[in-house]
Amino acid sequence: MIRQTVRRLLTAPAIRRGLCSDSSRVQSAHQVFAALTKNRPVFRITEPVDVIQEPSMFYQGLLRGIAQAKSRIVLSSLYLGSDEPELVSALDQALAANQALRVDILLDCLRGTRSDSRGQSSATMLAPLVRKYGDERVRVAMYHTPALNGISKRLWPQRYNETFGLQHIKAYVFDDELIVSGANLSRDYFTNRQDRYIRIGSRGLAAYFVDLVRAIASFSFILGAERNLAMSVGVPDPSRDPREFVAVANSAMTGFLGRAQAENSVTGDDIDEADTLAIPTVQMSQLGITQDEEHMREFFHITDTYARLHGCRNLMASAYFNFSDFHKHNVLRSSSRWDLLVASPRANGFYTASGISRYIPDMYSIIEHEFLKSARSCGRPDIAVEEYYRDGWTFHGKGVWCYLDQKLPQLTMIGSPNYGYRSIYCDLETQITLIPGTTGSQLRDDLHQEALSLLSHSEMVTEVGLEKRIRGAPLWLYGLKPFILKKM
User: Fold this and answer.
1) If pLDDT is split at 50, 70 and 90, which confidence band does 263 have?
2) Looking at the chain, which terminus has fewer C-beta neighbours within 10 angstroms, N or C?
3) pTM for this prediction
């Protein structure tokens, strides 16, 4: 039997009567979303785009990309798991077999140097590659947030100090092929932690992400052969001189984004509706870069306006029900129908945690309950919340699927943001907006099947059901809500 959540997505929205009686007047997706291409780099994708469904397929794609790369491998992730010797070995073999190959890796400094019980970390895993091949062929950059500085840097312990801000971008480049995802380079993300993954063949888009990673590396710590970290030449230490660091980092990012836009800009006359368009955006509020926030604001405006005339529905997924006030406000006020997909408590990565962390799934349930109350008070029965649960799995997927008045998505967003406070104000994030062209019917089908697959493991929750779930939650948990909203 088709689950209620899947049936809901399959049901087309009603056209607003009296506002658009002539279906021939309905605009194409390229026309509807034309404003998203302004002041942004835009890439025309002519090769087939592959939607990867399972973590194991994502992992095999990484190994295949490493083995086949001829000139460049770029890996950007929060961290590399200390249980990933196979991935490191694959990089070693590729470097040994091809003297022309260069590897750039971007990780977060705080997470990348956090040690496990064996004393292993991302840094200890990768330093041997730097030692063996030299920093001209292997460059491991580790970004450090300027928000953790001074006495805070000394007092906050590992794990908790990561709440100040992270390098959160997930993008994997092999020559002219890009895999964009929200997944990290760790064993659970390759086996039973469901995320999203899309493979795109495009020399221009791949080059954009190579340049993005190298721009961030220019103001990051660089890993040495002996596991030592040294700041890039001429860049202030963000933990000692955060103000000067931000100025340098902002200059580097502003320059990169300006060049990317100038080299890859389009106008309405340039857009061929047969082309699939890819629009990358970045968010780095701590460094004064808010491109993705502006992009999302425009997307909310476009879909709200369109829905008033034609009807529109959207699916937005996040690993956690911790959407920012910005996202919740725009969903509640929108004329579009919205489905929000998040992890159920049992599919939340914190479900089996120890100490205070084990209460985090309860906090997300409390926030869900408050949101559904707000939706009811706003008269929005067309807003629903679904929770993903698959026995033995956790959920880490994020992104947007936009269905205009058709039965297939005309736009998707995929990348690293969880659409929470941290995504906007703390972390380094990037996502890609894909608008399939008229020749991209297979891509639209694949994106729709991806959404249906995720929803097939999901159940819609209700205000009453959530009220029962949180009834036994300790009162002190409510006092932690401001911290959870901004730090998790």
Assistant:
1) very high
2) N
3) 0.94
What are 375-406's pLDDT values in tens digits? 999 999 999 999 999 999 999 999 999 999 77
Distance CA 79, CA 454 (A): 25
Name the β-bridge partners of 415: 431
Q: In whole angstroms, give the CA distance from residue 467 to residue 371.
A: 12
Which of 151-155, 194-198, 373-377, 424-428 is the least confident region? 151-155
Encoded tokens for 48: 């087939």
* Confidence band, pLDDT 50/70/90 cuts, at residue 7: low
Distance from C-alpha of 214 to C-alpha of 260, rounded to nearest angstrom: 13
> How far is residue 390's CA from residue 192's CA, in Å, rounded to a whole number?
9
Residue at 77 is within a domain: yes
Rg (CA), the chain: 22
Q: Pairing relation of β-strands 102-108 and 138-143?
A: parallel
- Taking alpha carbons only, the member of 53, 103, 57 closest to residue 80 is 103
Count Cβ neighbours within 10 Å for each residue of 390-402 and write b for 16 or more, e otherwise: beebbbbbbbbbb
Give me the CATH number covering residue 191: 3.30.870.10
Known catalytic residues are 168, 170, 175
Q: CA of 220: how far to CAs of 81, 144, 145, 389, 431, in Å? A: 20, 7, 9, 38, 21
Q: Within 13 Å of residue 328, how many CA atoms lie on the same side as its CB?
A: 18
Query: What domain range is 177 assigned to?
Result: 4-318+397-456
Mean pLDDT of the chain: 91
Query: What's the structural domain count of the chain?
Result: 1
* Long-range residue pairs from 476-482, CB within 8 A, at least 24 positions apart, any chain: 477/359, 477/362, 477/363, 477/366, 478/366, 480/359, 480/363, 481/363, 481/366, 481/367
Q: Which amino acid is at 432?
A: I
Q: Is residue 334 in some structural domain?
A: no
Instruction: Answer yes or no: is 74 within a domain.
Output: yes
What are the tens digits of pLDDT across the range 41-79? 999 999 999 999 999 999 999 999 999 999 999 999 999
Ranges of beta strands (E only) in 109-228 are: 138-143, 171-174, 177-181, 193-194, 197-201, 221-223
Whether 345 maps to a domain, the answer reads no
